[in-house]
Each structure stands twice: as C-alpha cells, then as structure tokens.
Amino acid sequence: MVNPLYDSLFGGHSGKTDTFLHLADGSTISYGAFLAMGARMAHVLTGLGLQPGDRVAAQIEKSPQALALYAACVQAGLVFLPLNTAYTVPELTYFIENSEARLIVCDPDARAHLDPVAARLSAKLETLGADGDGSLMKRAEGQPDHFATVPRGPDDLVAFLYTSGTTGRSKGAMLTQSNLLSNAQTLQTEWRFSSADTLLHALPIFHTHGLFVATNVMLLAGGSMIFLPRFDLDQMIANLPRATSMMGVPTFYTRLLADARFDKALAAHMRLFISGSAPLLEETHQQFEERTGHRILERYGMTETNMNTSNPYDGERRAGTVGFPLPGVDLKITDPATGQKVPDGEVGQIEVRGPNVFQGYWRMPEKTAEELRPDGFFITGDLGRLDADGYVQIVGRNKDLIISGGYNIYPKEVEQVLDAHPDVLESAVIGVPHPDFGETVVGVVVPRPGCDVDEAGVLECVSDALARFKHPRKIVILPELPRNTMGKVQKNVLRDQYGDLFQNA
C-alpha cells in the first residue's frame, strides 16, 4: 500500500455514491463527495507549503468539513492534531508551541485571538466554521477533486492526541499509521460492523472515541453515520429509528433513560450499543437492559492506545467490567512498586502491549521511558484486577489511590457502596490531606431526583459494608459531579475544591 491508513479507510470509496454522512438538517453526503472535499483540502494544505510529517493543529467545531480535514491530513501525510473546543488561548498556545504545528485551523471567531500566537510561533493560520465557512474552504474552491496520496509507512506518524494534563504538563501521544489501522480492523471484526450499519454519531471528533474509534471503524466497514453536531436528546430520539448502532459515553445512556420516549420499541431494531470513555454504573447497565432488552457493550481504551479491551459481542457482557483484552493485545496486572505480575483477583496497575500502543510522547523522552517499557508494555496508570473468568475490572487511576494511615484504599470500592444507597444517584471518592493519617477519604455524592441525602445515613450504610479505615470522614453533597467533555469525573477538581477540609483538624 502507498499509504496504509488512507488506502484502507478512504481509498476504496473514491467515486462511490453511497451515503457516508446523514446530517442533522436531513441532507446527506456521499462517500465520493466527502473524499473529493478532502482532496481539495489536501491541495490547499500542500499549497501552503506543508510537507509530510508537519503538524496541523485544529480547534474547530464538529462538521463534515472538519472530518474532511482529517482525511486531507492523512492523504497528504500530515500529522493531525485535533484540539478540544473548550481549550482557552493559553492552553492552545502550549499545544501549538509544543507540537511545533506549521498550520493552525480555528473557528473564524477565534482568529483575532490566535493571529498573534501564529505570528509568534511562525505558523500559518486558516479558519473553518461549523457551517463550513472560513478561509480554508474558500481556498479549497476550484481545487481538483483528486489528490495524489502521499506514500507513508506503517510507523509514520498520523496524529497527535494530547493527554488531559491533570497531573502536570499535557503530553502529546504520537500515533502511527499502524496504531490506528490495526485497532480499527480489530474493532470492526470484534463488533461485527459492515456496510449495512448506520452509526448514530453524537461524539466530539477531537477525541479518540469519536474520531479514531467511531469514524475509522465506519470508514473501514463502508457503513454510514448519522453525524450530529453534539448530543441533543431530541435529535438522538428522532434519529434512533434510522440507526443500527450507537457509540456513546455513559451520560448519553443515562439521559436517554431519563426520557420516557426512549422505550423498547424505539430500540428494537438496533444491533449494538457501545459505551466507553468513562465507567458505566452497574445500575445503568441493568436499567438499560430492563428498558430496551439490549445489553450495552462496554470497552476500555485511552489516548495512548486506542482500545485495549472489550466485552464480547457474543457471550456475556458483564456489568462492572470492560471485558477481555482485544486480539493482539497483551494485558497484565502488575505491582506498581516492582512491575511484577500480581495473582489473579488482586488489584494492580494495568499494563498493555500491542500494535495499538503509541510510539511515545512528543519531545518527552524521559516521560516516554517512565511509562513505556523496553519490552513494549505501556503502564496505563489505571488500577484493575482480573476476575475469575478473565474479565478486566477497572478499579481507578493510580493517582486516585488513597493511602490513609499506611492502608491502600481504592475509591471504586467505596463508590460502589455509596452508589448502592437508595437516595444516591452517583458518587466520587477522593483522598484529601489529613494531619494524622496523611490522607483520608471524602465521599462526594449526588442525590437522586426528589431525594434528600442524609450524611449520617450514608455513613451508617458504609460502616456496615467496609472496614473502618475505608470509611469516608466526610460526605459532600453536590447537585452534579464535575466532568470533562467525554464524561469522565474530574477528581482533580474535587481534590482542589475540598483539599482543605481537615487542615485544622
């Protein structure tokens, strides 16, 4: 192949009139039209002087044109750097400077703020709006509909994704052609996607879930996507009858369940519901199955690896687990102190190895050496265990581990007890500084609608289920938990907010 990723995902669709994207306004875009759009954009990129391997930083709203920019970068051999639309100018400046991006693509309204950044960093700047307006598409008008695909090898970089940076500087994960293609091929096979599928797509495309999982799998399968700008409950319910499959974060499923219109009849024709990017409560699994008859398929992945594990398509999809390692992925649970495997059933850090694992962190050789072992195993930073049947259970992040009075406390264990309280909708458990114990446990809970959570009652519930050293010393009641764009609870925000609860204890 000249360019393995482009040839596999896009190359076979040139000129096809089959629908690729169903848009929210009812219009459609065929495969052929989409690839022609990407080719015109590739001509613009190379016309701006960009060379294979150069980085293109894009902070733009989700749109067909935004997705075509990804295709253009792959075809032109450029490294695509999608950036969260919520990032501020100072945050963007770090990503652009660190990646040494040659081109910045932003919303037209952001140009005035980013022009000085581009000038200082000697980067070019073009604009692309949510409606397809902006200077990039104006430049693309009149460009040829075909572009000679730039040859690339399996180990050539195709994308950077920056980590969230909650424990220091964000790190640029370098993803190769082989990383993305191997994972898409595995997922298409494991999840049985074909050209008959229509995926309901309401995820952002600056994240691995919406871009490298959902989009790459559908391109490989030759199916179509209902391409919504964002999650909108009315739009989701209106479009479900046209879909065969859906990928979402847990929030998507809880919001659907909260609406009486989402019933068994509405989901009867669906083939598959997939959840990821954040843990799905066992209660949500159960409610969803009771309501629809479908068992959500939960999987586990991360920025640096794409997908690592998945519950089976055929067989038991076990709530509270993320299934088994995907074919080609080696997974082990190790002692963080020694790196040695721990016995099955014991908690340790999750390490993975496979063709999906990234090449390293951009311009951070020391950090790469800390987290990527010489034998190829990546230390994920997640804590987990293998149950008796080999299912992987995620316990939490290594940085979230609470050490109180010398005892290790895994937040997930306490959260499961809090979540079981009849008045509690969901919870997050954090460790905060304590003068006697070093750290102590704080439980943050969200009440169920119409319920009043009694702190004493919650603590009594915990006392019956857990050893005393695991008991929260304080219960904080909030209307909702802070979450990032992908639905992950931001425990760092909670630790910052409640870190001084016991400073005068």
How is this structure best described in words?
With 505 residues, the protein is of the alpha/beta class. Helix content is 31%, strand content 25%. It has 16 helices and 25 strands. The strands form six sheets. A nine-stranded mixed sheet has the order 2-1-10-9-11-12-13-14-15. Strands 4-3-5-6 form a four-stranded parallel sheet, sandwiched between helices. The protein has a four-stranded antiparallel sheet with strand order 16-17-19-20. Strand 12, helix 12 and strand 13 form a beta-alpha-beta unit. The longest helix is centred in the first third of the chain and has 17 residues. It is globular, with a radius of gyration of 23 Å. It starts with a helix and ends in a 7-residue tail after the last helix.
Q: Main sheet: which strands, in order across?
A: 2-1-10-9-11-12-13-14-15
Tell me the span between the first and last alpha carbons.
Answer: 66 Å
**Helix share, percent:** 25-40%
Q: Strand portion, in percent?
A: 15-25%
Radius of gyration: 23 Å
What structural category do the secondary elements indicate? alpha/beta
Profile the largest sheet. 9 strands, mixed
Residue runs with pLDDT of under 50 for 5 or more positions: none
- The dominant shape is globular
Number of H- or I-type helical stretches: 16
Mean pLDDT level: 93
Number of strands: 25
